[in-house]
């Protein structure tokens, strides 16, 4: 039996380095895991570092649900400069002195971007417009607008303000952000700068958490190359979703695709475990019955 056939299913929490795409991390994981059945939950831009959740084998079916969970970031925002990409990788398109901006003004701007908000994504992004990636349209010089989308910024905290050595007319802010899936941190930087009248962009971004998975459990590519292992799918599911333990009869019925009666489940996917501790499925409650979202028994 080949390594691909007998490889374990589970998650790998990678501490992504800067300068590498999320797809590049997936390519390396395929080599290490000995299988092409590898994916990731929630793309990180090449500039960004930190938590990237990788699924191997059957755990790839968890990724779409994990991608919808809350995320946490540590970032540096530079006020006084705007860029075409809303981050440090793009050409500077405008600048204005930011030295006169007060902490009170910054706090007011941050407060306006906290909570449920409507956010226009960065144009240089992978969002599709009529089937074409937004960044492709930008490269082709097309003039277009992206519609605003609802996102939730649960927390937007400013920890430090300082004048950067390489840009004495600018102002750097060290921040942490906790937000819903689909939130662009570089769009927050852009909008904060725009609201303060000086422009802004992101100069550093590190994702510190995706759902329950944080940096404490993440490993670098170098560490994984030395000792590759996955977080077993049972542990991964138990950490990320509410747990529902069923008896042998219920497990058999669910395995046959039968909708069984359920207790009051938490909204959203719930992880079902059999009497032997095996992870069976993700289910949602529908009219008092368990609707299977994704099966893992086979």
From TrEMBL:
Top-rank taxon: Bacteria
Record keywords, A-Z: Isomerase, tRNA processing
Single GO MF descriptor: tRNA pseudouridine(55) synthase activity
InterPro entries: PsdUridine_synth_cat_dom_sf (IPR020103), PsdUridine_synth_N (IPR002501), PUA-like_sf (IPR015947), PUA_sf (IPR036974), tRNA_psdUridine_synth_fam2_C (IPR015225), tRNA_psdUridine_synth_TruB (IPR014780), TruB_C (IPR032819)
Keyword Cytoplasm: no
Assigned EC number: 5.4.99.25
Domain tRNA pseudouridine synthase II TruB subfamily 2 C-terminal: 241-296
CDD domains with a match to the protein in the record: PseudoU_synth_EcTruB
Pfam families the record matches: TruB_C (PF09142), TruB_C_2 (PF16198), TruB_N (PF01509)
Domain (tRNA pseudouridylate synthase B C-terminal) ranges: 186-229
Annotated catalysed reactions: uridine(55) in tRNA = pseudouridine(55) in tRNA
Catalytic machinery residues: 45
Domain Pseudouridine synthase II N-terminal: residue ranges: 30-185
HAMAP family, A to Z: TruB_bact
Its biological purpose: Responsible for synthesis of pseudouridine from uracil-55 in the psi GC loop of transfer RNAs.
Family named by the database record: Belongs to the pseudouridine synthase TruB family. Type 1 subfamily.
Protein name from the UniProt record: tRNA pseudouridine synthase B
Gene assigned in the entry: truB
